[in-house]
């Protein structure tokens, strides 16, 4: 049995192997080249590498897939970040007149990080995660994925596990890549319901009428709330956590609930009492009495880092980059199988490198044309590891996008014919 | 007959009259006439005043509320800009001075474009105020005039059919502000790409489906504003490119620079009092002379041995403004951070850069100015894990109250402060806090900057006499700062190995990962 025990010290040995034999370069290039629809799209893209000893190298760019491969083989980055598509080649940014080197386009991205939920999870804190709090990520993905598709009309959403404690979303539609900074921040704000810093206790405030987007989001949260908040996190268990919930309701309701809770200890029933109070309040016809919804949202609604989504030139960790701390590969997530996604089952670099060393099974020894041997071997290589299913999913994602490139390319060539 | 005939002739003879035929403008083409340098200056200064008023009112009042509108109208009148836009265009054009007012409005807008196109920050500020001014003016128009305006500027939007309205009725009612089932039937709904109505999207005041928003006619101003904003920001980018030509004009250049500096008020970044404060003093100063926003950051830093990016910027620049040298700043942040999860090595790699950056020693080499209250209050609101922002704006009132009690503010004072907070007068609330904690009855200054708070506090406590003098001197020697730049640049160049790292302001993002 290969062990997935990962040790940071082994990284310098494993990375060359990973980049030489496993990293899915052709898919990676296929993605970032976007069918070659726009000239120099790949060439003007910024990559940034983190090398050993936290050395950051920004403004890397490559003219071809081969050049990218060569450079990665040489540098063996601990971490890869992807930046914007610029007006010029990023590696020549020093040579162009200052002010003219500008970030033009980038995928619309979202970063959801478990540390931002520290005030509402009791199981772990900071960078730690467990299967209990992972539910938060599932909720986040379901809510955002729906809204980005149904409300904003985007189609090509790549969800990626960050390798440690969060998920990223890359919205790859052409329209998304072309969004202005103002538009990005408007989208991010539309999607943000939990507001305020450490000096704000009540972070969700709903006003009438409740927007359809919030209703849809609430429907998702309601699916998970009993199991996640009432049971897993037991928010109506310990005294302090009960108090914390009760800071979110109006004063008179709080006093009443405190009394009722004296006799009622079961979390589910306590939650029913809260909901009863809300129904009562709402029946009075007074506006803005949505505290039961506000509680659910404050505990479960996705917490976005708006600043990451806003900037066109913001860097975000690349898919298939390794997380140096955990050794896990940052893998694309199949959102049709979201409920079964297990961050702890995501392969580490040590695991997949070990899997490479396992003896080949007979069927893989097909005769091959010498010329393509290296390329074919690489394809076969990743297929023999636990990385395979993630690359396969990535392929499907790219196929989906390719159909839209084709349309675009056709349109362009038609235009040309007209002249 | 004769009259209108005569007018038409004038139109042909003078294209400027056409340009100023309407009070509300998209400012399409630049004015063509010559203008004297002194007129240039008064126009610019007056518009700047108007825009500052727009900004201030936006903080203290709900935009377009009665008071907001009234104050803005008064200010426009005082400064001789067009006001009362609802009066019929043709009639008011003949009103005394109306032509002059419009001319002033038109020309001054273009002058400020020159002054405010130079940096991202300036552009953002200028666009925001111009957009708000436009919003106010547009909302002042009669419905008919609004339609005329759309017409004149070729703004056409698709309306949805009655059937579509019926199917979406529920959604439209629940997403549009102040729209009921009846009013949905009564008015047109426009369907436009969501990019054209960002303000409504941002605040979720519109129904959004498959990338399109459904805007009730009553909210059409949003699309118009969006259009205005887009045009203006494109125009500024163009102007910026032609700027070298303007800059070679030695009469204009100092004037333009002066204008663009004016928006932040006093520049507290000037470092003349460097080294007048020792690191040991900071704890006690934070209790006595720091405004609450900085006190809060200081406390959070001491407790957590860490501050996130937003907090580091707000607090770091403030400290720079009160006189910490770069060396002191590095020492200050390092000693605190290494008490937490960051070791010295990590600090030097990941954070030292951003501190040198604040002092203009890295990256774009811009010398960052400490944030004004307005900036703290309006931009980059704190989120999870953040301690920055303005406590009067960004704290739960309950927490703020507790804090004030803890700081021994008398109950009557607390209720006064909370009243001001409720009315969204955050700076006034802060000033009240200042008065209460410094035993001053009526402030002789009007607070708009955390560093000003500090200086005034030192003055009031008598401890800051020397400090004050230095500060005044520094104002006078603003020009010197430019002269210091080359030395700084040289030093920085020596320190960095160019190819390795060149980072932007968004450093933090770069160091956080999933
Ligand atoms: S009003 Fe200004 S100085 Fe006072 S706390 Fe707020 S930001 Fe700080
Ligand atoms: Zn957990």
TrEMBL record, chain A:
<keyword id="KW-0862">Zinc</keyword>
<keyword id="KW-0240">DNA-directed RNA polymerase</keyword>
<keyword id="KW-0804">Transcription</keyword>
<dbReference type="Pfam" id="PF01896">
    <property type="entry name" value="DNA_primase_S"/>
</dbReference>
<keyword id="KW-0548">Nucleotidyltransferase</keyword>
<keyword id="KW-0639">Primosome</keyword>
<dbReference type="GO" id="GO:0006270">
    <property type="term" value="P:DNA replication initiation"/>
</dbReference>
<dbReference type="GO" id="GO:0006269">
    <property type="term" value="P:DNA replication, synthesis of primer"/>
</dbReference>
<comment type="similarity">
    <text>Belongs to the eukaryotic-type primase small subunit family.</text>
</comment>
<protein>
    <recommendedName>
        <fullName>DNA primase</fullName>
        <ecNumber>2.7.7.-</ecNumber>
    </recommendedName>
</protein>
<dbReference type="GO" id="GO:0003899">
    <property type="term" value="F:DNA-directed RNA polymerase activity"/>
</dbReference>
<keyword id="KW-0479">Metal-binding</keyword>
<keyword id="KW-0235">DNA replication</keyword>
<dbReference type="GO" id="GO:0046872">
    <property type="term" value="F:metal ion binding"/>
</dbReference>
<keyword id="KW-0808">Transferase</keyword>
<dbReference type="InterPro" id="IPR014052">
    <property type="entry name" value="DNA_primase_ssu_euk/arc"/>
</dbReference>
<dbReference type="InterPro" id="IPR002755">
    <property type="entry name" value="DNA_primase_S"/>
</dbReference>
<dbReference type="GO" id="GO:0005658">
    <property type="term" value="C:alpha DNA polymerase:primase complex"/>
</dbReference>
Automatic annotation (TrEMBL), chain B:
<dbReference type="Pfam" id="PF04104">
    <property type="entry name" value="DNA_primase_lrg"/>
</dbReference>
<feature type="binding site">
    <location>
        <position position="373"/>
    </location>
    <ligand>
        <name>[4Fe-4S] cluster</name>
    </ligand>
</feature>
<keyword id="KW-0004">4Fe-4S</keyword>
<feature type="binding site">
    <location>
        <position position="293"/>
    </location>
    <ligand>
        <name>[4Fe-4S] cluster</name>
    </ligand>
</feature>
<protein>
    <recommendedName>
        <fullName>DNA primase large subunit</fullName>
    </recommendedName>
</protein>
<keyword id="KW-0235">DNA replication</keyword>
<feature type="compositionally biased region" description="Low complexity">
    <location>
        <begin position="483"/>
        <end position="494"/>
    </location>
</feature>
<feature type="region of interest" description="Disordered">
    <location>
        <begin position="464"/>
        <end position="499"/>
    </location>
</feature>
<dbReference type="GO" id="GO:0051539">
    <property type="term" value="F:4 iron, 4 sulfur cluster binding"/>
</dbReference>
<keyword id="KW-0411">Iron-sulfur</keyword>
<dbReference type="GO" id="GO:0046872">
    <property type="term" value="F:metal ion binding"/>
</dbReference>
<keyword id="KW-0238">DNA-binding</keyword>
<feature type="domain" description="DNA primase large subunit C-terminal">
    <location>
        <begin position="284"/>
        <end position="454"/>
    </location>
</feature>
<dbReference type="GO" id="GO:0006269">
    <property type="term" value="P:DNA replication, synthesis of primer"/>
</dbReference>
<feature type="binding site">
    <location>
        <position position="430"/>
    </location>
    <ligand>
        <name>[4Fe-4S] cluster</name>
    </ligand>
</feature>
<dbReference type="InterPro" id="IPR007238">
    <property type="entry name" value="DNA_primase_lsu_euk/arc"/>
</dbReference>
<feature type="binding site">
    <location>
        <position position="390"/>
    </location>
    <ligand>
        <name>[4Fe-4S] cluster</name>
    </ligand>
</feature>
<dbReference type="InterPro" id="IPR016558">
    <property type="entry name" value="DNA_primase_lsu_euk"/>
</dbReference>
<keyword id="KW-0639">Primosome</keyword>
<keyword id="KW-0479">Metal-binding</keyword>
<keyword id="KW-0408">Iron</keyword>
<dbReference type="GO" id="GO:0003677">
    <property type="term" value="F:DNA binding"/>
</dbReference>
